[in-house]
């Protein structure tokens, strides 16, 4: 990617193939607009929204029921799902794109929207997998260092709360949250533009898309920070409600993220294949 040549509000980028992409600066108030548009998309695509929301809700419930006596493993799996969320939201991006074109939402087409850019999506999934693999190694290491494995459950009847109220559990959570926030910030910066751009523009490669994503985050530091915090708060609500809130949170954030992408990025239609089949 070439260096930007315009003011901070609007910046020009050029890919290795010569494609022209414009990134725009957004105001903080745009976050509310993205969420409103996301909520509107839910009402226009109730079946697809319920489907994707239910998948995420089920995942949260399965993690809790499977690992409620193993807090370290539970928090580890919960973080992995959060990191995978941008990739899992591809179907929601496709659904929102259908709605923006005044098309009837098609669940099956949205499920396989990634197929039109298989190689690049696969490469991004591989990179995300590497990050997740690293985190999978780090999490138990944190527990071993602070010796929280010896205090996984103080009272089996209290489950996770017993762990969180123990000294070792609190020490584990402090280091865990620091690491999780750091990795989540990396995933956010790499994916906030990458996945929707790969879905919408077949000309761009995953490396160029990730570089552009990081640049867009840098161009909108405050807005992206608040947007990331908004996502974190809503996802946390979905987790602490044992997945029930995910029925709404997942589609809301997926649709809102698509609208955020469209406010942040503009591709020169004359130089790109901008006709995705969703």
Protein topology:
Blueprint: E1 10-14, E2 20-24, H1 30-44, H2 46-67, H3 71-88, H4 90-100, H5 107-111, H6 118-145, H7 160-164, H8 167-191, H9 194-200, H10 206-219, H11 221-240, H12 246-264, E3 265-267
Helix pairs in contact: 1-12, 2-3, 2-12, 3-6, 3-8, 4-12, 6-8, 9-10, 10-11, 11-12
Give the DSSP E fraction (strand runs of 2 or more residues): under 5%
What spatial order of strands do you see in the largest sheet?
A: 1-2-3
Shape type: globular
Order of helices and strands: EEHHHHHHHHHHHHE
Protein name: Cytochrome b6
Transmembrane segments: 45-65, 77-100, 121-146, 172-199, 220-253
Keywords: Membrane, Transmembrane, Transmembrane helix
Protein described:
There is one protein chain. The protein has 12 helices and 3 strands; from the N terminus they run ββααααααααααααβ. By secondary structure, the chain is mainly α. The chain has one domain (27-262). A 3-stranded antiparallel β-sheet has the order 1-2-3. Strand 1 and strand 2 form a beta hairpin.
């Amino acid at each position: 990617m070439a260096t930007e040549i315009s003011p901070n509000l609007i910046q020009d980028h050029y890919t290795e193939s010569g494609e022209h992409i414009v990134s725009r600066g957004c105001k903080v108030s745009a976050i509310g607009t993205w969420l409103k548009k996301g909520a509107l998309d839910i009402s226009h695509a109730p079946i697809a929204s319920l489907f994707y929301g239910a998948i995420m809700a089920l995942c949260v419930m399965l993690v809790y029921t499977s690992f409620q006596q193993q807090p370290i493993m539970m928090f580890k799996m919960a973080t992995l799902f959060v990191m995978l969320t941008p990739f899992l939201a591809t179907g929601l991006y496709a659904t929102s794109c259908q709605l923006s074109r005044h098309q009837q939402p098609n669940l099956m087409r949205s499920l396989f929207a990634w197929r039109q850019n298989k190689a690049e999506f696969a490469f991004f999934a591989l990179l995300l997998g590497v990050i997740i693999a690293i985190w999978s190694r780090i999490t138990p290491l944190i527990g071993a260092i602070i010796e929280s494995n010896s205090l996984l459950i103080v009272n089996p009847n209290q489950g996770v709360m017993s762990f969180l109220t123990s000294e070792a559990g609190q020490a584990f959570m402090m280091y865990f949250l620091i690491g999780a926030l750091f990795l989540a910030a990396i995933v956010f910066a790499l994916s906030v533009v990458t996945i929707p751009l790969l879905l919408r523009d077949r000309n761009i490669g995953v490396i160029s898309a990730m570089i552009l994503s990081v640049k867009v985050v840098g161009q909108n530091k405050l807005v992206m920070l608040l947007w990331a915090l908004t996502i974190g708060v809503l996802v946390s609500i979905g987790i602490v409600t044992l997945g029930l809130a995910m029925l709404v949170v997942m589609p809301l954030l997926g649709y809102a993220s698509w609208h955020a992408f469209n406010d942040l990025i503009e591709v020169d239609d004359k130089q790109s294949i901008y006709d995705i089949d969703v």
